[in-house]
Design brief:
Layout (H helix, E strand, L loop, with lengths): L3 H7 L15 E2 H20 L5 H13 L3 E3 L1 H10 L2 E4 L3 E5 L2 E5 L3 E5 L2 E11 L8 H16 L8 E8 L11 H11 L3 H7 L2 E6 L2 H15 L11 H6 L15 H8 L21 E4 L1
Helix pairs in contact: 2-5, 5-8
């Protein structure tokens, strides 16, 4: 593996106002969410994030499972080079087709400085055996960004791990990422699936598939078309923006709608991943 990835890790993100909502880059998570409902993505930038109890619980659990030691960028680069096995989370970025994209995978597993796995962890209160298109798009885009940064991704795989929130609560949940990593490296995931009710979805890295996903999504960010809403009333029913979204397929009372429309408008937008790390910042790692 050459030196390009080292330079890429220290490069600052793109600046300026190149895309919708004056964004200087497009968040990988936003591209993924476009495959769930593009109108919801738009509402999140227009109105900002709307908190919910379920969302906060999921985020808290996610952070506990992914707890890692924070290190400076130069130390992370050294560990990637020298550690026989390393799990880390850091900002990835690159130019994909006509847009600058950035984000932060949950975890990247390196073996002898080569990325072997990109891991995305998804908790749910529902059925963990169901895989959504947006989740696959997200991990595929992260894989392509690693390739764009100059990493050797020829032997890299992508792992989407889904499980019910209640199944991972307990005193040992902070050890879960290490267990997942070991299981993937050994090719033995059935035990964790049976013991914790998880479901592993494994895919070989495919740059072409990732580019095809971005090819459709970039039209929105480049202003070539408007948002395409979901046609699912079920998605609208559980969406936190239902009462204020002009595309909503669910009817609300006038009082409810007026209350939601009173939310402050965030015209500049702070969508997911908008705080992706730039050069000189610290990144979490796990040995």
């Amino acid at each position: 593996m050459g030196e390009e990835w080292k330079r890429s890790m220290s490069e600052p993100l793109a600046t300026g106002k190149a895309y919708r909502f004056d964004q200087s880059f497009v968040a990988a998570s936003s591209i993924a969410q476009q495959y769930y409902c593009e109108a919801k993505v738009e509402q999140s930038y227009v109105h900002g994030d709307i908190p919910s109890e379920a969302k906060e619980a999921g985020t808290s659990l996610h952070e506990e499972v992914l707890a890692m030691e924070k290190v400076e960028l130069k130390d992370l680069v050294e560990r990637i080079e020298k550690a026989p096995l390393l799990t880390a989370s850091f900002g990835v970025h690159g130019r994909i087709l006509d847009v600058d994209v950035a984000g932060m995978p949950d975890a990247v597993v390196f073996e002898k400085s080569v990325p072997r796995w990109v891991i995305e962890l998804k908790t749910t209160k529902g059925d963990p055996t169901r895989l959504w298109d947006d989740q696959l798009v997200q991990v595929r885009v992260y894989g392509l960004l690693l390739e764009k940064m100059g990493f050797d991704c020829s032997k890299m795989w992508l792992a989407l791990v889904r499980w019910r929130q209640e199944d991972v609560r307990g005193p040992r949940k902070e050890e879960m990422l290490s267990r997942i990593t070991r299981s993937l490296m050994r090719g033995e995931t059935k035990e964790l699936e049976a013991r914790f009710g998880m479901r592993f979805f494994l895919f070989r890295h495919d740059a072409g598939e990732a580019e095809r996903a971005v090819a459709w999504a970039q039209g929105y960010w480049l202003g070539r078309r408007g948002a395409v809403p979901s046609s699912s009333p079920g998605k609208c029913k559980i969406c936190e923006y239902s009462a204020i979204c002009p595309y909503s397929l669910v009817k609300f009372s006038l009082d409810s709608a007026a209350e939601r429309r009173a939310l402050p408008r965030n015209t500049w937008g702070t969508g997911p991943d908008s705080s992706s790390r730039t050069s000189g910042s610290s990144s979490p790692v796990r040995k």
